[in-house]
Design a protein that fits this description.
There is one protein chain. By secondary structure, the chain is of the alpha+beta class. The protein has 2 domains: 2-188 and 312-396, Aminopeptidase (3-Layer(aba) Sandwich), CATH 3.40.630.10; 190-306, Alpha-Beta Plaits, CATH 3.30.70.360. 32% of the residues lie in helices and 27% in strands. It has helices spanning 18-26, 38-50, 118-134, 155-167, 214-232, 277-294, 320-331, 347-352, 377-396; strands spanning 2-5, 54-61, 64-74, 79-85, 103-105, 108-110, 140-147, 173-176, 184-188, 190-199, 203-204, 236-237, 241-242, 244-252, 258-259, 262-271, 299-306, 313-314, 338-341, 357-359, 374-376. A 7-stranded mixed beta sheet has the order 1-2-3-7-4-8-20, with helices on both faces. Strands 14-16-10-17 form a 4-stranded antiparallel beta sheet, covered by helices on one side. Strands 5-6-21 form a 3-stranded antiparallel beta sheet. The longest helix is centred in the last third of the chain and has 20 residues, at 377-396. It is elongated. Its cofactor is Co(2+); Zn(2+). GO terms for molecular function: metal ion binding; succinyl-diaminopimelate desuccinylase activity. It is an enzyme of class 3 (hydrolase). This is Probable succinyl-diaminopimelate desuccinylase.
Length: 403
């Protein structure tokens, strides 16, 4: 179901305070998968609608939504999208304050999602509203999107991007909000998560010689996978470092008195921009073939793929969108160096559609998914001006960007 709120006359007195807005957002429990995203989207939609944006809520599933808001500043020009995600990871235990009761202390705002990625969501909304109401840009369009379930399988972005393509409304460039300390990241690793099933032969645990122990065989396979991971260390990207392959889940056995027939190993394989999921699966299957040769009686195969945000992507550092964003940061005495993101994000879906994309936002990578997640209040406030500067720089020219 899709609900659209038409633009009304903007209320120039209603520019939200970014700390207040973030505090309200963090108080909404949008945990993936158990929480709901609607209240977070509603708060953002209300602020944007009050500033004259046309807002649309698209319901993907109960409690799971995409928010899109648009404001045309004038005829012609570029369309620039600010994008981030509504969901957060589970809070876990050990917090020094309640994770969904945001608290400011020692100059930092604590709460689950304060950095990943409700801090970027709040700062982007405030920057878009400020620029829209400044009247300084009279061409182009600002698009704001807050998407569903990025922390799972990126269902929101996987739905949004094809819809934009089908409607002929792809933006000319996208800034994806993730905690980067407001540094511009132009590349990110992707991931693929093969679930490997090792099959042996069951027998009574009192007569193990009549069986083939799948758990023991899985241990032998883990050794081969470690060799494979070591080989990957020789393949490096200048912004992202090496590709990796990490066993993250192991489970097997059927009963405490039986030789286990089956064991499953889930891998987290991080991909560099020059790698494809198909090529990676081919390489892993080659490892499994070597395992079969060395382990008579046991087999191993990729049974399924666990959910992942998606593959890797990169925007060239000399792309005009990147160059303009660097110019905007430098003009505001901010770090304009380029970097890479070692985790997944929704950039991959926009790049796959040919849209130049950057990752940039307040907060630090090391607090993502961590206990006592937080964002520095001064950095959050400064990020509003930096987002606004990048937007203004990108919208000033009407010349189309190359894909």
């Amino acid at each position: 179901m899709t609900t659209t709120t038409r633009a009304t006359r903007p209320e120039t007195s209603r520019i939200p305070d970014v700390v207040d807005l973030l505090t309200s957002l963090v108080a909404c429990d949008s945990t993936n998968p158990t929480g709901e995203e609607e209240s977070t989207a509603a708060l953002l939609g209300e602020a944007l609608a009050a500033a004259g944006f046309e807002t649309t809520i698209d319901t993907l599933a109960p409690g799971k939504v995409n928010l899109t808001a648009r404001l045309r500043l004038g005829a012609g020009g570029r369309s620039i999208m600010l994008n981030s995600h509504l969901d957060v990871v589970p809070a876990g235990i050990g917090w020094t304050s309640a994770p969904f009761e945001p608290e400011v202390r020692d100059g930092r705002l604590f709460g689950r999602g304060s950095a990943d990625a409700k801090g970027p969501l709040a700062a982007m909304a405030c920057a878009a509203i400020e620029l829209a109401q400044s009247g300084t840009i009279t061409t182009g369009e600002i698009v704001y999107s807050a998407v569903s379930q990025e922390e799972g399988d990126s269902a929101g972005a996987r739905r949004l991007v094809p819809e934009l393509v089908g409607a002929g409304r792809l933006p000319d460039a996208v800034i994806v909000g993730e905690p980067t300390g407001m540094r511009l990241l132009t590349a990110h690793k992707g991931s693929i998560r093969p679930v490997i099933e090792v099959v042996g032969r069951s027998a009574h645990a009192a007569t193990p010689q009549f069986g083939v122990n799948a758990v023991v065989a899985a241990g032998q396979l883990l050794g081969l996978l470690e060799d494979y991971a070591t080989e990957l260390g020789g393949r490096r990207h200048p912004l992202l470092g090496a590709a990796t392959c990490t066993p993250v889940l192991v489970g097997g056995g059927e009963a405490p008195n039986a030789v286990p027939e089956r064991c499953r190993i889930t891998l987290d394989r991080r991909l560099l921009p020059d790698e494809s999921p198909d090529a990676v699966l081919t390489a892993i299957n080659e490892v499994l073939a070597r395992f079969a040769e060395q382990t008579p009686g046991a087999t191993a195969s990729v049974a399924e793929l666990a959910p992942s945000t998606g593959g890797p992507s990169e925007t060239p550092g000399d792309h005009p969108f990147v160059v303009g964003a660097r110019r905007a940061l430098a003009a505001n005495d901010a770090d304009d160096s380029l970097g890479g993101l070692t985790v997944n994000c929704d950039m991959t879906h926009f790049r796959a559609a040919g849209v130049p994309t950057l990752v940039c936002g307040p907060g630090q990578l090391e607090v993502m998914h961590a206990v006592d997640e937080h964002v520095v209040v001064d950095e959050l406030a400064a990020s509003v001006g930096l987002y606004r500067a990048i937007l203004a720089e990108s919208l000033t020219s009407t010349e189309p960007y190359p894909s």
